[in-house]
Amino acid sequence: MNIVNPDWASDMSYIDITARNSGTDPITISTVEMNNRIVNDFTFRSGSAKLNAGESAVIRVTDSFVP
Hints:
The chain is an all-beta fold. The chain has strands at residues 2-8, 14-20, 27-28, 32-34, 37-39, 42-46, 50-51, 56-62. The chain has one domain (2-62). The strands form 3 sheets. The protein has a 4-stranded antiparallel beta sheet, with no helix packed on it. A two-stranded antiparallel ribbon has the order 3-7.
């Protein structure tokens, strides 16, 4: 899986990331980690947790980010 196109909110309250399944088999996204820490607050803005080969999803991660 590749993570591309990070898009930060202007107030740093969230980041939207695009996850792309670059493999040949389907995958399921069950957890999101940032800086070796599991993120509890994430939603799928487009796509879903299950990605077939070549598919993408946009995931919004909300946290207390510090610039």
